[in-house]
Amino acid sequence: MKISIGLLFSDAKDFLCNATNRVLVAVTIVGVLLCYFQYRTENKLNCIIEQSTTANSELLNEIRINRKKINFRYFNLTKSLEEIHKVEINTRNGKLEND
């Protein structure tokens, strides 16, 4: 059985002559395109969420590391109060400790 391209086009032309069939084809094409764009959007969002999660974890790790390096003293005011009253001021939680 030999299929001719002309016969295929004539059958497609006959199919699309009916308004209902044209609407059906248009709705099908639009549906397929919407599904494709939805799939691409979800993939991009998942990639962005994954990058954001890794960036947040790296940032929190850096904050945790740098928090230990910070000297929580108040410039000269704290130092002079410690020297005058002979107490140690824990500036992280605000407690005074006698020497």
Strand content: 5-15%
**SSE string:** HHHEE
Decide which structural class fits the backbone: mainly alpha
Q: What is the number of helical segments per DSSP (H or I, 4+ residues)? A: 3
Count of β-strands: 2
Considering DSSP H and I runs of 4 or more, what fraction of the residues is helical? over 70%
Q: Which word captures the global form?
A: rod-shaped
Major pleated sheet: 2 strands, antiparallel
End-to-end span in angstroms?
A: 104 Å
Mean pLDDT across every amino acid position: 82
Q: What strand order characterises the main sheet? A: 1-2
Rg to the nearest angstrom?
36 Å
- Low-pLDDT segments: none
How is the quaternary structure best described? single chain
Task: Map the helices and strands.
Blueprint: H1 5-16, H2 19-69, H3 75-85, E1 87-90, E2 95-98
Antiparallel strand pairs: 1-2
Could you characterize what this model shows?
The chain has 99 residues and is mostly helical. Helix content is 75%, strand content 8%. The protein has 3 helices and 2 strands, in the order H-H-H-E-E. The protein has helices at residues 5-16, 19-69, 75-85; strands at 87-90, 95-98. The chain has a two-stranded antiparallel sheet. The longest helix is centred in the middle third of the chain and has 51 residues, at 19-69.
